[in-house]
Amino acid sequence: MKLAIFIGSLLALVTILAFSSVNNSPVENHIDDHSSHQQPDPEKKFPYQKTEKEWKEILTSKEYRILRNKGTEVPFFNEYNDLKDEGLYVCAGCGQKLYSSDHKYESGSGWPSFWKPISDSLVVELEDNSYFMTRTEIVCSNCGGHLGHVFDDGPEPTGLRYCMNSAAMNFIPKEDINK
Ligand code: FE
Predict the structure, then answer these.
(1) Ligand 1 geometric centre to CA of 91 (Å)
(2) What is the reported pLDDT for 11?
(3) Cβ(52)–Cβ(132) under 8 Å?
(4) Distance, CA 27 to ligand 1 centroid (Å)?
(5) 140 among known catalytic residues
(6) Are residues 104 and 26 part of one domain?
(7) Full residue range of the structural domain in which residue 31 is found
(8) Which one, out of 25, 82, 164, 166, has a CA that is 20 to 30 A from the CA of 67?
(9) In a domain, 45, yes or no
(10) What's residue 43's pLDDT?
(11) In-domain check, residue 42
């Protein structure tokens, strides 16, 4: 009888240990990390991290002012406002692809404008209440760099205008995309 209780207790202990090890498995923790990377929470850290010192080393002063300090460049007198070449626009901070020339249009605003990003997951929307206005800020989903704002006066099919700062992006011509 004592042997039966001992074996029963042993089995229960083994079962508890087995389940507790499954719940703490590195695989599950890894999946949790991965899901948070796909949908960055603006309250949390973005996946691509640099210290302020490192950002200042890799960005020009203009890029730093816009991407890291939410600056805005002068309308019309910026690099990509009039650009009509085919290619991709990537984040000047981390290199993540953001916009395609296929979705760029002439908005008349003086800043490069797109009616959609390449994919919604590449940018994050944040509420911006600066300058006595309520606007929707757009940041890179990988590094959190400020890119511009989105407005609802764009063309069909989305009706959106992603109004971007040229200095927050780098343009890669179509012929150089796969190099
Ligand atoms: Fe970025």
Answers:
(1) 5
(2) 41
(3) no
(4) 27
(5) no
(6) no
(7) 2-37
(8) 82
(9) no
(10) 57
(11) no
- Domain shared by 76 and 101, yes or no: yes
Q: What pLDDT, on a 0 to 100 scale, did the predictor assign at position 179?
A: 77
C-alpha closest to that of 103 among 112, 116, 88, 90? 116
The answer to whether residues 87 and 32 belong to one domain is no
pLDDT for position 178: 83
- Centre of ligand 1 to C-alpha 144, Å, is 6
The amino acid occupying position 146 is H
Please give the chain's pLDDT, 179 residues, in tens. Answer: 444 434 444 344 333 333 333 333 333 333 333 333 344 455 568 999 999 999 999 999 999 999 999 999 999 999 999 999 999 999 999 999 999 999 999 999 999 999 999 999 999 999 999 999 999 999 999 999 999 999 999 999 999 999 999 999 999 999 999 87
CATH of the domain at 81: 2.170.150.20
Q: Which of 91, 94, 143, 163 is catalytic?
A: 163
In a domain, 44, yes or no: no
Does residue 151 lie within any of the structural domains?
A: yes
Q: What angle do CA 177, 138, 171 make, to 5 degrees?
A: 20
Count of domains forming the chain: 2
116 burial (CB, 10 Å; 0-12 / 13-18 / 19+) is middle
Residues 111 and 137 in one domain: yes
122 and 58 in a single domain? The answer is: yes
